[in-house]
Amino acid sequence: MAPENKLNISNPAELAKIEEKISKSKSVQLFENNIVEEFEVGKFSVLSKIHKFLFDDLYDFAGKVRTVNIAKGSFRFAPVMYLEPALKHIDDMPQSTFNEIIEKNLEDSKNVRRNRSYFRKVRYKNIRRKKLISKSVYGLDWYKHDGQYSKGKIHCGCGLCKFGKKYGLPTYRDMREKSREKSLIEDYKTEQLNNYL
């Protein structure tokens, strides 16, 4: 479902294309006309003004602090409950020019070293996690070799996930949710019984 917009577009794919087109042309204007140079650097108010400049033609909420949680596709933006502290942190950052901010981000990205050992560690972590899921849900190792666990995502269509879908078995998440629902119902019944007595 597409968010409310000034163009009254309800198709998310169509809205995404138009949003991309408008925001790209606006960002070109932002830098070519040196509009960015007029803003006070390193403050949340600047980000708010940039957001308003880029998206004001599309959304009424452009440039405003949101009050609801949002997502775009499978990506979830920062939850509202963490937004205020994060925005205060922006104002406390030491950078005072756009060049300093860009240099800092480039410096941070250079310091991230993702060599072979990093990827091996991530792979082993994923294998351990999937084996744990396999043992807790099905009570056995699903694959003969550990390397087979590293292929694809969990709940993706691999043999581990297809088996549950094919035979109608609940996933670990479903079982956990059912358990949570049972405890909530029990709590509700106990509360109602206490209120009745």
Question: In words, what does this structure look like?
Answer:
This protein has 197 residues and is mostly helical. Helix content is 59%, strand content 2%. A two-stranded antiparallel sheet has the order 1-2. A hairpin with a 2-residue loop joins β1 and β2 (75-76). The radius of gyration is 24 Å and the shape is extended.
Task: Chart the SSEs and their pairings.
Layout: H1 12-32, H2 44-55, E1 71-72, E2 75-76, H3 80-91, H4 98-111, H5 116-138, H6 159-167, H7 172-196
Antiparallel strand pairs: 1-2
Helix pairs in contact: 1-2
Rounded mean pLDDT is: 78
- Give the beta-strand count: 2
> Structural class, please?
mainly alpha
> Radius of gyration over alpha carbons?
24 Å
* Proportion of residues in helical segments: 55-70%
Element-by-element helix/strand order: HHEEHHHHH
Beta-strand fraction estimate: under 5%
The major sheet is characterized as: 2 strands, antiparallel
Helix segment tally: 7
Spans of at least 5 consecutive residues with low confidence: none
Q: What topology, given as strand order, has the largest sheet? A: 1-2
Amino-to-carboxy terminus distance: 47 Å
Globally, the shape reads extended
Keywords:
single chain; 197 residues; mainly alpha; two-stranded antiparallel sheet; 2 strands; 59% helix; extended
In short:
By secondary structure, this protein is mainly alpha-helical. It contains seven helices and two strands; from the N terminus they run H-H-E-E-H-H-H-H-H.
